[in-house]
Amino acid sequence: MKTFLDWSAYKDAGMGDAYADIPRHGDNYAKAIAVCINSKQCEAEGKQVMCPSYKVTGNPNLSTGGRVRLLKAALSGDEFQTKLFEPEIVQALQSCLSCKGCKRECENNVDMPLIKAEFMAQHRARHGTSLRSYIIGNLPRLLFDYPALGKLIRLRNSSPLLRRIGARLTKFAADADLPQPVKHKFKKPSNLPERPDTKHKVVLFIDTFTRYFEPEIAYAAISLLDHLGCSIDILESQQKEAPFCCGRTYLSQGMIDEAHDQAQRLVSALLPHVRAGKTVIGLEASCVLGLRDDAKALRLGEELTEVASATFLLEEYLARELKGAELPQLSSDAPAAFIHGHCHQKAVGAMKAVRRLLKAFSAPNFQIMDTGCCGMAGTYGLEVENRELSLEVARHSLLPALESTEKGLIVANGFSCRQQINTLTKRRAVHLAEYLNGYL
């Protein structure tokens, strides 16, 4: 079995263990699957992130361990090339929200989202690329090449007929609002502060979703970093070249070569900044985690390691660099902040940084809510086959928690989380950068 991602990190996993139960086919990919020890932590009740699909359905096949059991059975037989794509396995893998909870909370750190990415690549090689996968994977490029795409999406969202036609053609759920790009995408300010004597030198990576859908977040982050005395640079491509992308949209659809090329381009552009002593700051948890974690499977070498070690979320960077410093206090009239954590924030432990940061700024009243997964998970909640499960996940803990926040401001650092909250509650959630910058 030829694999598309680099699974060499697992080459010694389970070797010499008679009970490892490594499937006969799949080589190192099979070993990555077999690190599961069947403890059923992914099927436990509690405050952990994983496994959202199991929590709302009770179906053991929709847990990390259940998916492992199905994959092991398929890869252990001689007809694995057929068995791997049986409907039960396809459904189990497609229902994974790629929350990364298993990578953090499982005793053996099973990385089901990356296992799913390999599965999607195998599925694509066998069955081709659907129109929806093409759109999702190539979204960063499509937004750059076709500025009128935003008008088309707005027209679709406003027309029940176009929603139904679109659902048939693209398999995006008719009852789901597609995110709408704004008319004026992010534009690099001409007066960025340069402070050669400060130790706080940063380069800001503006991801696709911030750039085209919510550029106000980038402007708020720049203003906040400026207020705190940072020297700021923005990673921008050459004129007439597409903006830089981490490759996550491609990876999620099993488009591994495209993901590699995008990640390599990003790493090559960031490397001179890192070697000049700058810290890379990202605003979207999925993009930062993609660069620090998933990209390791894309065969990018030591340059990736160098860049990844210098890459942080905004809240991680500020909580680390400003520890013990005298910070400006938030205005006393700042509204209560109710914080919903993105699953990938939780997966990298960044919610602790959010808490430390809000305390350091003396936020007058904030609460980090126990909201679990929002259910949107990138485009997951927009897909016909996953739409109802996405809504069930949102109803499980997010929506009940939000019922008690009417008099406060919802803070959510994930793009898809904000989209889910907005469409289901008709309330606008803001990024932490907007909250802090808005009330300094």
Backbone structural class: alpha/beta
The neighbouring-strand order within the major sheet is 2-1-3-4
Largest sheet: 4 strands, parallel
Please report which band the strand proportion falls in: under 5%, 5-15%, 15-25%, 25-35%, 35-45% or over 45%.
5-15%
Low-confidence stretches: none
Radius of gyration from the alpha-carbon trace, in angstroms: 22 Å
Please report the distance between the alpha carbons of the first and last residues: 56 Å
How many strand elements? Answer: 7
- Fraction of residues in H or I helices: 40-55%
Give the averaged pLDDT, no decimals. Answer: 95
Shape: globular
Count of alpha and pi helical runs = 23
* N-to-C series of helices and strands: HHHHHHHHHHHEHHEHHEHHEHEHHEHEHH
Task: Please give a structural write-up.
The chain is of the alpha/beta class. 48% of the residues lie in helices and 6% in strands. The strands form two sheets. It has a four-stranded parallel beta sheet, sandwiched between helices. A three-stranded parallel beta sheet has the order 6-5-7.
What does the secondary structure layout of this molecule look like, with pairings?
Layout: H1 27-34, H2 52-57, H3 64-76, H4 80-83, H5 87-94, H6 101-105, H7 112-127, H8 131-137, H9 139-145, H10 149-158, H11 160-170, E1 201-205, H12 208-212, H13 215-227, E2 231-234, H14 248-252, H15 256-275, E3 279-282, H16 285-292, H17 301-308, E4 311-313, H18 314-321, E5 337-340, H19 343-347, H20 351-360, E6 366-368, H21 387-402, E7 409-412, H22 415-425, H23 432-438
Parallel strand pairs: 1-2, 1-3, 3-4, 5-6, 5-7
Helix pairs in contact: 3-5, 10-11, 13-23, 15-17, 18-20
